[in-house]
Amino acid sequence: MNVKDSNGTPLSEGDSVTLIKDLKVKGTSVTLKRGTLVKDIHLTDDEEEVECRVEKVKGLVLKTCFLKKV
């Protein structure tokens, strides 16, 4: 698979990324702020999505268009 972040940089299992936009998490009152560091991402079957854990939300799936590799 060829998973890339918003800038076209290749992503791999276990990378750290930051958010480039404030994101509201469906089903909760949590808003992830721009610049939030997300460590140890897991790749999914879809090239446009990664699974991760953030301090308040576990099992979160984020679109790669909102991520930038650190």
Structure commentary:
This protein has one domain (17-69): SH3 Domains (SH3 type barrels, Roll). The chain has no helices and 8 strands. Helix content is 0%, strand content 39%. The protein has 70 residues and is mainly beta.
Write the layout of secondary structure elements.
Blueprint: E1 17-19, E2 23-24, E3 31-32, E4 37-38, E5 42-43, E6 49-54, E7 57-63, E8 67-69
Antiparallel strand pairs: 1-4, 1-8, 2-3, 5-6, 6-7
Describe the structure concisely:
This protein has 70 residues and is mainly beta.
CATH superfamily: SH3 Domains
According to CATH, what is the topology? SH3 type barrels
Instruction: Return residue spans where pLDDT drops below 50 for at least 5 consecutive residues.
Output: none
Give the helices and strands as they follow along the chain: EEEEEEEE
Main-sheet strand order equals: 4-1-8
Class in CATH? Mainly Beta
Q: Give the number of domains.
A: 1
In CATH, the architecture is Roll
Helix content: under 10%
Q: Care to count the β-strands?
A: 8
Largest sheet composition: 3 strands, antiparallel
Taking the alpha carbons of the first and last residues, their distance comes to: 20 Å
Strand content: 35-45%
Strand-pairing-aware structural class:
mainly beta
